[in-house]
Specification:
Layout (H helix, E strand, L loop, with lengths): L9 E5 L4 E2 L2 E2 L1 H12 L5 E4 L11 H15 L4 E4 L5 H12 L5 E5 L8 H14 L4 E5 L1 H4 L5 H7 L5 E6 L4 H10 L3 E4 L5 H6 L4 E3 L7 H12 L3 H8 L2 H7 L7 H9 L16 H12 L12
Helix pairs in contact: 1-2, 3-4, 4-6, 9-10, 11-13, 12-13
Length: about 300
Amino acid sequence: MRELTPDFSGLWIPLVTPFERGAVDHPALYRLVRQLANQGVAGFVVCGSTGEAAALSPEEQLAVLDTVRSAAGDLPLVMGLSGYHLPETLEWVRTLNRCGVHGILVPAPHYIRPSQTGLIQWFESIADASTSPVVIYDIPARTGSTLALETLRTLAQHPRIVAIKDCGADDLKTQHLIADGALQVLAGDDSRIFNTVALGGAGAIAAGGHVHTQRMVHVIALLRAGELPAARALWRPLLPLLNALFAEPNPGPLKALMAHQGLLLNELRAPMDAASEGLTARLRTLSEGIPALVAHARAI
């Protein structure tokens, strides 16, 4: 029998980590979270891939979590983690247990590419050690490991594995997971948000949600309410911008656009680098061309 679990539906923002002269820019991070918290988002993912977590020390990651918590109010927080050394990863999970997060976002171990049996052992060991719900991060482009449908169905039987950030680029697997209903399916590829939620997915963890946030929140709410024509009208202007945000490695393009908007400095940690001037100019044009969000006649 599954435990009662928190809800992961809606739009979650996988936060960027602002930097200034090489250090985490905590004041900019605080201001960003305060601004986004008022846009109707479901919560925040801290220290995910968009947050350049691989370039942050454990101490920096915990400090980032503290800043986000102080700014987020009552909104729930999910903490990203990654690794390939299971004992060290479990020790980090035990550290996060003391932080009181809403959930942890867990990818397959990178570089190793274990068997499906090995992947089950990895996720179940982490879920056993965690006191928070686990969101599987299915992203073979980063980890090199593909989670088979039957593997995910097995993992869904664990009482603390409750959702999946779906970056697997496998539409049939996505539809099966939604139909199964054992995991809340969250779109992880921004361009797939519309299709995933229209098919019954719970929401999205979307880097593009940093910009035109209210529009994306409304798209997801309309889709979940079955109001497809209204959702399409709001979604179509977003799609060219979302595609452009991933034309170069994330979060370079996103930070370039946000820097233009005065939200942070256009600074990343090596080996990540800034977006090209041509793409930056294109992003500005696309973002500024999206019509202002018009209030809906009835509440969503």
